[in-house]
Amino acid sequence: MEPEGRDLFAIADLAREFGISTRAIRFYESKGLLAPERVGATRIFRRRDRARLILILRGKRLGFSLRDISDYLSLYDADRTQQVHLLAEKVDQRIALLERQRDDLETTIRELREIRKLADERLVKS
């Protein structure tokens, strides 16, 4: 059965599906980002937990901090307008940071190429 058609998931199911460790999932739980039900010592994840895990992993892949992800998830069941505003603000901040980093990288690459050119010229002269 497709994961989207299921209602319940074990921690190992989610770890396997998303290619992460069960330890990572427990870490997200310890940070309050996931809240599985418990049956004894067994964690039972629902579709909602799976959806939240997708958002957590996407946020991490895009470079957002756990705090940013937590802020966004705290609005998950609340005011959608506020959630969208927060998302737009965080995305704008992330884009600005990445653009600054890209500019810094381009400057560094230019400087390194110039250094390499000077080194090559000195090697030819010697």
Would you write up a description of this structure?
Residues 8-75 form the HTH merR-type domain. This is MerR family transcriptional regulator. GO terms for molecular function: DNA binding; DNA-binding transcription factor activity. With 126 residues, the chain is mainly alpha-helical. It folds into two domains: 1-62, Multidrug-efflux Transporter Regulator, Chain: A, Domain 2; 79-126. It contains five helices and three strands, in the order βααββααα. A three-stranded antiparallel beta sheet has the order 1-3-2. A hairpin with a 2-residue loop joins strand 2 and strand 3 (42-46). Helix 4 packs antiparallel against helix 5 (80-125).
Secondary-structure map:
Elements lengths: L7 E2 L1 H8 L3 H9 L6 E3 L2 E5 H15 L4 H9 L5 H46 L1
Antiparallel strand pairs: 1-3, 2-3
Helix pairs in contact: 3-4, 4-5
Protein name: MerR family transcriptional regulator
GO molecular function: DNA binding; DNA-binding transcription factor activity
InterPro entries: DNA-bd_dom_put_sf, MerR-type_HTH_dom, MerR_fam, Tscrpt_reg_MerR_DNA-bd
